[in-house]
Design goal:
alpha/beta, 8-stranded parallel barrel, 16 helices, binds D-xylose, binds calcium ion
Length: 439
Amino acid sequence: MRTYFPDVPKIPYEGPKTDNPLAFRFYKADEKIGGKTMREHLRFAVAFWHTYQAEGSDPFGRGTAIRPWHDVTDPLDLAKSKMEANFELCGKLGAPFFCFHDRDIAPEADTLSQTNCNLDAIVRYTKDLMKDSDVKLLWGTTNAFSHPRFVHGASTSPNADVFAFAAAQVKKAMEVTKELGGQNYVFWGGREGYETLLNTDMGLELDNLARFLRLAVDYAKEIGFTGQFLIEPKPKEPTKHQYDFDAATVVGFLTKYGLDKYFKLNIEANHATLAAHTFQHDLAVARLNGMLGSIDANQGDPMLGWDTDQFPTNLYDTTLAMLEVLKDGGFKKGGLNFDAKVRRGSFEPVDLFLGHIAGMDAFAKGLRTAYRIQQDGKLDAFVAKRYDSWTKGIGKEILDGRVGFKELEAYALEHDQVRNVSGRQEWLESLLNAYLTEG
Ligand code: XLS
Ligand code: CA
Ligand code: CA
């Protein structure tokens, strides 16, 4: 088989002081942290769309990327080349997983049945490549947003034919994900949202979205697909109002339609910040609802109002994210998918490795720091002490359901000189900095 990145070796761990750009500083796959290897904790995945499809175009200019498969012209051969490159890149990085949309891995043809044949051919080819590799599929999904037929949405389109088309596509993508041993299946809202209520029946669209997800659940049961279903919130882009706005919105939606037991959430950092939340906030909302499924690891740019999908390098964020994952008892079927693309100016093939190494190291360092924070217990102890009033006296009586408004009024009349204590935010932030800079 062809080698796509001949100048890139298997990436070694060389420690924080290395000058070698093609080495890890913090990610030592086999090192155990709290009984699990870093590989098992972090479950890194490479995103097919950004790594092999993105060419670095923007609204002002065409792609700049130089890619080793650019000499391949036949669409199916090109799809095979990219899949070969994927196994080489994941293998050299030591990333145990990859993720894809149906249309990333195989070209769309003029008819749905020919498109499905293309997909089948690539899936067969991928299965063969998997035989000689440890690389697995973390999740598959459907691209039901790029083609013009999805101009008004997929399952929330006003056009029932589009709903049917999207259903056919998800059916096939789910079968393919199962065939390749995918551990999860993602539903991201694509164009499921709207631009203006002047032309939109929002009630019907939301009911249809739920209807669609219910049909997906039924079909998964029918074919015995046991992967975890994940919904990925995003507040805007491409539509102005995306229905899956943020973690809290999705939890409410799933609960309303009785779908909550079938789905968990795939939280993307850049989507959380677009919703004006921190990444940690949306992870915490998912965790508190027992729905933290998986993560799309990237970061946005606070000075830009759109989804920039940059490789995550902010240690503050990766640390707080891994703290949420550790509090949740670690990933089950999910993992850390790099939904991230190298910048337009980083156009050489080696940049694909440098981007992933930067992201893997940022999360490895985040894991190390988060684990120390958790073991040390100082932050947890501070929070526990802050809520101490609920462990005794009137607080305990409230929690035990032993008092109503009348008893509370009687209590308040007796204790109306309330005294609060400082929240010590600055001290806590400085403590976090100490964890980040030591060790
Ligand atoms: C787009 C989303 C998308 C999903 C998968 O913003 O991040 O890439 O992760 O469809
Ligand atoms: Ca994503
Ligand atoms: Ca994104």
